[in-house]
Amino acid sequence: MVYVSSHASGNSPAQSSASGPNQEWEASCNAFSLITQNVDGLHQAAGNRNVLELHGNIRVNRCLSCGRELDHEPEQYVRGVPYCACGGKLRPGVVWFGEMLPERVLEQAFNDARACDLFVVIGTSSVVYPAASLPEIAHESGALTIEVNLEPTPFTPNADFHLGATASAAVPALVNCWKACNKS
Ligand SMILES: [Zn+2]
Fold it and tell me: Which of 91, 112, 157, 174 could form a disulfide with 33 if both were Cys (CB 3.0 to 4.6 A apart)?
């Protein structure tokens, strides 16, 4: 199963306890991917393990020369600019406007969307591509799709279920349903 969340939409893991509903959901699945456009690393902080960050992570620095990603403080600064040990300049590990999304992460997201049996898309307007094509791919590949969004979106006509609710209201209920259905 795959679960996509876009922007925090009132369900920021920062507001929930260390083991939030997303983490509970992942723990009760054989395969679970959380695909996100958030860059704040909060899903991981809330306990999710398989997180695909389409827009990178603000807590990581990437070297412009060797491509290395650093998840700790850079060793050296020159006039306030952080540098990699190789001498290359470091930049935040996020995708800036107009840049390509990270290829490997995107490929994994597409693969997961094709392979999953349940795809839940939460709090996204489903208009920005390529992320918006993920629920469509899941739908075309035969997955059950559930959309959680206050407003209808371009994906709504294709969704098996549209829940006009906030993530914070809908997700804990969905997790309870999921657990009840999988109790055997
Ligand atoms: Zn480097």
Answer: 112
Catalytic residue selected from 7, 43, 55, 72: 55
Tokens 């979106």 sit on residue: 153
Q: How confident is the model at residue 130 (pLDDT cuts 50, 70, 90)?
A: confident
**How close is the Cα of 48 to the center of ligand 1, in Å?**
29
Fold category of 2-55+100-181 in CATH: Rossmann fold (3.40.50)
Give residue-wise pLDDT tens across range 17-41.
446 788 888 988 889 999 998 898 8
Tokens 């795809």 correspond to 119
Give counts: helices (H), strands (E), the chain.
Answer: 5, 11
69 Cα–ligand 1 center, Å = 8
Distance in Å, CA 56 to ligand 1 centroid: 18
3-state secondary structure of 70: strand
Within the chain, all domains assigned CATH 3.40.50.1220 are found at 2-55+100-181
What is the value of pTM for the model shown?
Answer: 0.83
